[in-house]
């Protein structure tokens, strides 16, 4: 059993290795560890979510850090189990907020959205994930809807939203893609196109939902 147990001293990922060092193929790992290939796949997902490895489509799996100071698996299990509900709530609330923002936004609201995008652009250019710019952008859209009750709903799940934001923006290539989607949302809101704004926000939140953590099924291991 790989998930939640301390790996044996000879496990490949416990060896201090150069950054970007490649791991053996899944089939080889399964044979060495005496477990199923499905178990290896699940273990690699966990390591990837924890930022220890990077799995490249068709290109193998590579160590990106040599430290095992990572998030406890138990906490990951809790996060994995609540994430679908959080993402479902975000889609319902934020799609409506974008629609209302297109109908009610002021020039100050638009300025706040554009300021958030500028910050996110800077963060990404500096090698970051754009987390603060992303937070400010969604806050600005919420404010632009001028709906006190919907804003209260958003505040009530702010911690869970922040968790889903971090989870999404750590995905390879995701910060720049999110930034592009944010711009499409702002364009629709600025043009007063409620339906297009809602569609753009729904597309964005569904992109946010595509995270590696959801590929992990904790009960299987």
Distance between the termini: 6 Å
Secondary-structure element string:
HHEEHHHHHHH
List low-pLDDT spans: 1-19
Query: What is the strand arrangement across the widest sheet?
Result: 1-2
Provide an overview of this structure.
With 221 residues, the chain is mostly helical. The protein contains nine helices and two strands; from the N terminus they run ααββααααααα. It has helices at residues 26-33, 37-49, 73-104, 107-125, 131-144, 148-156, 158-169, 174-190, 194-208; strands at 53-56, 60-63. The protein has a two-stranded antiparallel ribbon with strand order 1-2. Strand 1 (53-56) and strand 2 (60-63) form a beta hairpin. Helix 1 crosses helix 2, helix 3 packs across helix 7 and helix 3 (73-104) runs antiparallel to helix 9. The longest helix has 32 residues, at 73-104. The radius of gyration is 20 Å and the shape is elongated. Mean pLDDT is 82; it is low at 1-19.
Topology, element by element:
Layout: H1 26-33, H2 37-49, E1 53-56, E2 60-63, H3 73-104, H4 107-125, H5 131-144, H6 148-156, H7 158-169, H8 174-190, H9 194-208
Antiparallel strand pairs: 1-2
Helix pairs in contact: 1-2, 3-5, 3-7, 3-8, 3-9, 4-5, 4-8, 8-9
Defining key terms:
mainly alpha, 9 helices, 221 residues, 2 strands, two-stranded antiparallel sheet, single chain
Can you give me a brief rundown of this structure?
With about 220 residues, the chain is mostly helical.
């Amino acid at each position: 059993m790989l998930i939640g147990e301390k790996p044996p001293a000879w496990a490949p990922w416990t060896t201090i290795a150069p950054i970007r060092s490649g791991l053996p193929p899944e089939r080889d790992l399964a044979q060495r560890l005496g477990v199923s290939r499905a178990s290896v796949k699940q273990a690699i997902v966990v390591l990837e979510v924890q930022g220890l490895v990077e799995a490249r489509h068709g290109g193998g799996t590579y160590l990106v850090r040599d430290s095992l100071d990572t998030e406890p698996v138990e906490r990951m299990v809790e996060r994995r189990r609540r994430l679908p509900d959080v993402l479902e709530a975000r889609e319902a609330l934020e799609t409506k907020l974008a629609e209302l923002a297109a109908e009610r936004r002021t020039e100050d609201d638009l300025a706040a959205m554009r300021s958030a995008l500028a910050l996110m652009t800077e963060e990404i250019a500096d090698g970051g994930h754009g987390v603060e710019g992303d937070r400010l952008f969604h806050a600005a859209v919420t404010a632009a809807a001028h709906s006190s009750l919907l804003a209260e709903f958003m505040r009530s799940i702010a911690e869970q939203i922040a968790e889903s934001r971090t989870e999404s923006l750590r995905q390879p290539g995701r910060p720049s893609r999110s930034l592009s989607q944010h711009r499409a949302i702002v364009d629709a809101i600025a043009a007063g196109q409620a339906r297009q704004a809602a569609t753009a926000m729904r597309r964005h939140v569904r992109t946010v939902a595509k995270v590696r953590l959801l590929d992990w099924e904790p009960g299987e291991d």
